[in-house]
Amino acid sequence: MSAASPQPITYAAAGVDTHAGDKAVELMKEAVAATHGPEVLGGVGAFAGLLDVSALKDYERPLLASSTDGVGTKIAIARALDIHDTIGQDLVAMVVDDIVVLGAKPLAMTDYIACGKVVPERIADIVRGIAEGCRLAGCALVGGETAEHPGLMAPEDYDVAGAAVGVVEASKVLGPERVEAGDVIIGMDSSGLHSNGYSLVRAVIDAAGLGWDTHVEELGRTLGEEALEPTRIYTRDLLDLLESPAGEGVHALCHVTGGGLAANLARVVPAGLGAAVDRATWTPGAIFERVSTWGSVPLADLEATLNMGLGMVAVVSADAADAVLAQLESAGLPSRAIGRIHPQDALAAPRPSTSDVLVSGTKGVDGGAVLMTGTHPGWGA
Questions:
Q1: PurM-like N-terminal domain: from which residue to which, for each copy (predicted)?
Q2: Percentage of the chain with pLDDT > 90?
């Protein structure tokens, strides 16, 4: 039989500090409560969040939409720079902007933070960022969990995940079923790299011998400031659009995340149709060209990894395109027409001597295709 430990082993001695967790909750309470409207019952600290959904009685056939996601290796940059109050907005954006593409309004969000050691101020910064993202999205933060995993994660390690639920009237669900030949494809500017492709970006920065504190003239700021720019949250602007007369012409929305523009756009193009996208219609931000140059990254790999300057795409009827563009611009969301929907057999075959790329069958969706053609203005100059 093994001998007993000569010293008592407490939970704190094992690496879990419950008092630090309580302090983190106190530091974040005000920010979380600021996301609560009258529909949220109870306060911070309950076992589960309560949301009054009486308003759903006004729906003819309400459908619940749900999504869950994380931030990925962008967290490594936040850790390196010890800046943690922007990661939360990234998390919210990755979740709620997947919900709004169905035409759904996000109602409530929860978060989960796993860490090697609870540092109350760091946890509170992360949650404040989540609360700010929820405020921007018009979504209540109704619960969360912080788990301390000593021995499994290093003290400075952490990861974040979140989930949200929203609602949409069944007759107003957006998607490939509404898309038709002749529809116009509208691309909306991203705020930068957003929250995808950071494994590639970090590898390029490392290989180029650069640091996150390196000031880059083309960016007008340091690499770290550029890399930690929060992901744009499109939810409120898109919900306003969908509720307007112009919104009647919106057939589908596409959140440009992992896989890039073509792979995600293909998910909302129905079988038998194809999207022709012309790169000449927009210029990606300087960070995309810098990553390409510093790492000699092939265009096809860039496009399959990064958003290339467009974080959200709308597929709209041709007669509504001008009105949709005008409303997005008035909301302060730079946008432009980047292509059209055609019968798939009308798409030209990619020319082997060019950068033409044809993408289909992505993300397990058996749908249409996306043809990328042309060259971004000033690209490689």
A1: 63-168
A2: 76
- Beta-strand relationship, 105-115 and 140-148: parallel
Distances (CA, A) of 33 to 38, 107, 141, 142, 266: 11, 15, 8, 9, 39
User: Which two tokens mark 125?
Assistant: 């910064």
Tokens 């510093």: give the residue. Answer: 294
- The residue type found at 285 is G
Q: pLDDT tens for residues 273-298?
A: 999 999 999 999 999 999 999 999 99
Residue 4 has pLDDT above 80, yes or no: no
Burial of 227 (0-12, 13-18, 19+ CB in 10 A): buried
Q: Do 350 and 208 meet the contact criterion of CB atoms below 8 Å apart?
A: no
Q: How do residues 248-266 score in pLDDT, each as one tens digit?
A: 999 999 999 999 999 999 9
CA distances from 203 to 79, 109, 198, 343 (A): 16, 32, 8, 40
Q: What is the pLDDT of residues 207-256, one digit of tens each?
A: 999 999 999 999 999 999 999 999 999 999 999 999 999 999 999 999 99
Task: Give the predicted TM-score (pTM) of the model.
Answer: 0.91
Report phi then psi at 45, rounded to 5. 110, -5
Q: What domains can be seen in the chain, in order of their start residue? A: 17-45+60-169 (3.30.1330.10), 176-373 (3.90.650.10)
Distances (CA, A) of 147 to 82, 125, 130: 20, 16, 17
3-state secondary structure of 43: coil
